[in-house]
Automatic annotation (TrEMBL):
Cofactor(s), names only, from the UniProt record: FAD
Gene this chain is encoded by: mmgC
Domain Acyl-CoA dehydrogenase/oxidase C-terminal residues, every copy: 228-376
Protein name: Acyl-CoA dehydrogenase
Family indicated by similarity: Belongs to the acyl-CoA dehydrogenase family.
Record domain Acyl-CoA oxidase/dehydrogenase middle: where: 121-216
Catalysed conversion reaction: a 2,3-saturated acyl-CoA + A = a 2,3-dehydroacyl-CoA + AH2
Cross-referenced CDD domains: SCAD_SBCAD
Length: 378
């Protein structure tokens, strides 16, 4: 597979690397203390990073999907928090409107989402509907020129900070997944109640909230696609979203590898750098091999997507493997650092805490296996 980036893609990589070093790295202590990186996102908007694949006519950067994946990958090497905020904003916040919205909806939302003025969120998961997303209970009842939504959602990334919420609700419970519809909900809609912000193991600084809809009136104009198309919209956007999370995991795994290799060359014990011991050298070799395999899977899925081909199976494979690599590399990096790895003086304990969720959100590793096996056996 050809992994030679075009000049435009290389420029994106250089720009994002420079930005991450100068603007994100210094912000990490503030995110670790719980601050949402609004300032960073504003600057990302100015650089065109909040609408990388949005067409120019809607105010976006009009770049290809591989450039978007390069951005998530490189940003996540420095901060997995920025990686997930951008991935959710783009893949499952903006893209549903871009691909399923009508012209009026696109004109209303895309320019502001592409500039970073509006942040996006995706509201599928409920207390009783996680992996079994199709069993959601939130109801939308049509009345005159609007729908009335009642229900609740959990684990909503960007929730509370977001301005635009893609909400999935049942408009006809007798039809199962074919009775689910998607709505674009503005933050200030009466009846949208932002609940608890979860205290998480990692990804400090990102928001993960509960949402409740209490007789929330959503204009009928905000129905995304047709009634009953919601589950398809969710699944289609998750197919693509999973490549973004895979790229985030790839970034975390590579950061852990680079930190471990760097430390192993410098740390001297028994009169030589610890890298000279095979017990450490072999760890580095395994981490590098897994990272390389993850990189190929991620960019292979991204290339298929960029060419407009179906990529659901490849996206799930990339996420399954890259997330396992992120976790394995982070664990091994802490081990290479020894006692120092367990302190907050080095970033590897953060990689360790941030890596785990990549095996959980946007479909657990078990769900990725279901998706892959369904593709191979249907
Ligand atoms: N693309 C388009 N349509 C699709 C699709 C896809 N990839 N997959 C399914 N569909 C549609 C089809 O129309 C299908 O009907 P047909 O069989 O007639 O084709 C219909 O949906 C129902 O499909 P299934 O019978 O396969 O549905 P299911 O109920 O068995 O569920 C599942 C399938 C893959 C397990 C799905 O429920 C799933 O992906 N679960 C995981 C949920 C998830 O990823 N949640 C993430 C939340 S968002 C998040 O995490 C963001 C964040 O914070 C970072």
């Amino acid at each position: 597979m050809d992994l030679h980036f075009t000049e435009e893609q290389q420029m994106m990589r250089t720009m994002v690397r420079d930005f991450a070093k100068s603007e994100i790295e210094p912000f990490i202590p503030r995110m670790e203390a719980g601050e949402f990186p609004r300032e960073v996102l504003t600057k990302m908007g100015e650089l065109g990073l909040m609408g990388i694949t949005v067409p120019e006519k809607y105010g976006g950067s009009d770049m290809d999907f591989i450039s978007y994946i390069i951005a998530i990958h490189e940003l996540s090497k420095v901060s997995a928090v920025i990686g997930v905020i951008l991935s959710v904003h783009t893949s499952v916040g903006t893209n549903p409107i871009m691909y399923f919205g009508n012209e009026e909806q696109k004109n209303r939302y895309l320019p502001k989402m592409a500039s970073g003025e509006y942040l996006g969120a995706f509201c599928l998961t409920e207390p009783g509907a996680g992996s079994d997303a199709g069993s959601l209970k939130t109801k939308a009842v049509k009345k005159d020129d609007h729908y009335v939504l009642n229900g609740s959602k959990v684990f909503i990334t960007n929730g509370g900070e977001a301005d635009v919420y893609i909400v999935f609700a049942s408009t006809d419970s007798s039809k199962g997944t074919y009775g689910i519809s998607a709505f674009i909900v503005d933050k200030n809609t009466p009846g949208l109640i932002i609940g608890k912000d979860e205290e998480k193991m990692g990804l400090h600084g990102s928001r993960t909230v509960q949402l409740t809809f209490e007789d929330m009136k959503v204009p009928a104009d905000n129905l995304l696609g047709e009634e009953g198309e919601g589950f398809k919209i969710a699944m289609a956007n998750l197919d693509v979203g999973r490549i973004g999370i895979a790229a985030q995991a790839l970034g975390i795994g590579e950061a852990a590898l680079e930190a471990a290799a760097g430390y192993a060359k410098e740390r001297v014990q028994f009169g030589k750098p610890i890298a000279a011991n095979q017990g450490v050298g072999f760890k580095i070799a395994d981490m590098a091999t897994a990272s390389e395999a993850a990189r190929l899977l991620v960019y292979r899925a991204a290339q298929l997507r960029a060419e407009g081909k179906t990529c659901g199976k490849e996206a799930s494979m990339a996420k399954l493997f890259a997330s396992q690599t992120a976790v394995d590399n982070a664990i091994e990096a802490v081990q290479v650092f020894g006692g120092y790895g367990y302190t907050e003086d080095y970033p590897v304990e953060r990689y360790f805490r941030d890596a785990k969720v990549t095996q959980i959100y946007e479909g657990t590793s078990e769900i990725q296996r279901i998706v892959i096996s369904k593709h191979l056996t249907k």
